[in-house]
Write a structure and sequence with these properties.
about 80% helix
């Protein structure tokens, strides 16, 4: 197979551009979410996004524009619950996730049925990426990256010690809200290609891999970013070559690299 020929197809070009941007954002945000023990929020948001997308398809709305504000509200709600010691955050995320998925399935069963469009949101599809989706993904992901870099030190502070950050006068709630919004945007954009079932893996796996190999926050962020982009490109290529689902193949690539990180750590005694 000629890789250059593979990427001569317009749908593969769109998938590559959007996928790299989304993978990069997932990796950056995933480090903070995993370290704050909020990693399951990504899974919960993907299910909320699916429910919102199902309702949008049933009502004839543009799915992405309808689901983005819904998922942002859900992210804000879940992060506030996760940060409150009086609430059982795991149970809340699980309940929200299951409820949103159930609502989405019920709406689909009573309206459009399992159409190709709905199926692509659940399991992902490179063929579903339209030029407008790519433009939206690039613009929003670029904004996510800029905001992450601008508030890097603030996000670093709330990731490791919220109480100390609050004591020093840092507006912790504001930056937790920012983290929630950025995560919600990234999850919604990534669902088109990865699917609701698998998008959370892009948040978790690169961060876990990087944390096995490096200790400093900056090194973990950089390693997670590189790992996420490389695994996506590898997964996309293998998916095209062997006609396998893109989302599952990308996750398999991340899993392999994660397992290899244990070998590397053992060999070099990191």
């Amino acid at each position: 197979m000629n890789i250059l020929q593979m990427f001569s197809y317009p749908f593969m070009q769109r998938a590559l551009i959007a996928g790299i941007m989304v993978s990069l954002c997932c990796a950056l945000l995933g480090v903070s979410l995993v370290l704050k023990r909020y990693s399951m929020i990504g899974d919960g948001l993907s299910h909320v996004s699916f429910g919102a997308l199902a309702i949008a398809v049933a009502l004839g709305f543009t799915p992405l524009y309808f689901s983005i504000p819904v998922v942002i509200l859900a992210a804000f709600f879940l992060l506030r619950m996760a940060g409150n010691p009086h609430w059982n955050s795991d149970a809340a995320i699980a309940a929200t996730s299951a409820s949103a998925m159930a609502i989405g399935i019920l709406v689909i069963s009573k309206t459009t049925g399992m159409t190709t469009d709905v199926d692509s949101y659940m399991f992902g599809s490179v063929l579903a990426m339209r030029p407008a989706d790519v433009v939206l993904s690039v613009l929003v992901c670029a904004a996510v990256l800029v905001l992450f870099l601008c508030y890097y030190h603030k996000l670093f502070a709330i990731t490791f010690d919220e109480n100390f950050s609050r004591a020093t006068g840092l507006q912790v709630d504001r930056y937790n809200t920012l983290l929630a919004i950025l995560t919600a945007l990234t999850i919604v954009l990534g669902m088109r290609m990865m699917g609701a079932m698998l998008i959370s893996s892009l948040v978790i796996f690169p961060a876990l891999t990087a944390m096995r190999l490096f200790k400093s926050f900056r090194s973990v962020v950089l390693c997670a970013s590189v790992t996420s982009v490389v695994c996506f490109c590898a997964g996309l290529t293998v998916s095209f070559a062997f006609s396998t689902p893109v989302g599952a193949t990308v996750v398999a690539a991340n899993l392999i690299v994660f397992l290899l990180s244990f070998v590397v750590r053992a060999l070099f005694r990191l």
